[in-house]
């Protein structure tokens, strides 16, 4: 409560009910529930696939750079980036696609930073 007697905001219960009614109206008018479920499933598979591919690529680059004459920081950066991308793949498969996207970006930037040290 705001403590003001002349407050124009409706009580919280009325706002929640109004939001739920608006969401139900949008669901009836807009996309079907099957379409939304399909989009969610596609986002999960995309995050899982992209994270897996980037993790494998980072691990392979770390092994190749470790066998070469590169400074130690280069394979470590690739390995850390691969680990972050693997974590993004796990989070993406569990439905945390927004966090997975940010982790994919961070992992890829870490691997690119390692490439700059080479």
Written account of the structure:
The longest helix is centred in the middle third of the chain and has 35 residues, at 33-67. With 118 residues, the chain is mostly helical. Helix content is 80%, strand content 0%. It is elongated, with a radius of gyration of 23 Å. The chain is built from four helices and no strands. Helix 2 (33-67) runs antiparallel to helix 3 and helix 2 (33-67) runs parallel beside helix 4.
Distance between termini? 59 Å
* CA-atom Rg in angstroms: 23 Å
Q: What's the mean pLDDT score? A: 82
Percent of residues in beta strands: under 5%
Q: What's the main sheet like?
A: none
Key traits:
single chain, 118 residues, mainly alpha, 4 helices, 80% helix
Give a topology summary.
Elements: H1 12-29, H2 33-67, H3 73-93, H4 97-116
Helix pairs in contact: 2-3, 2-4, 3-4
In short:
This protein has four helices and no strands.
């Amino acid at each position: 409560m705001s403590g003001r007697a002349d407050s124009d905001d409706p009580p919280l219960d009325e706002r929640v009910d109004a939001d739920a009614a608006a969401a139900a109206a949008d669901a009836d008018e807009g996309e079907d529930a099957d379409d939304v479920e399909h989009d969610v499933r596609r986002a999960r598979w995309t995050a899982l696939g992209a994270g897996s591919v980037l993790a494998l690529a980072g691990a392979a680059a770390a092994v190749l750079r470790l066998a070469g004459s590169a400074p130690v920081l280069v394979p470590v950066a690739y390995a850390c980036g691969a680990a972050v991308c693997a974590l993004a793949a796990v989070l993406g498969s569990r439905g945390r696609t927004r966090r997975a996207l940010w982790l994919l970006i961070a992992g890829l930037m870490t691997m690119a930073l390692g490439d700059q040290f080479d």
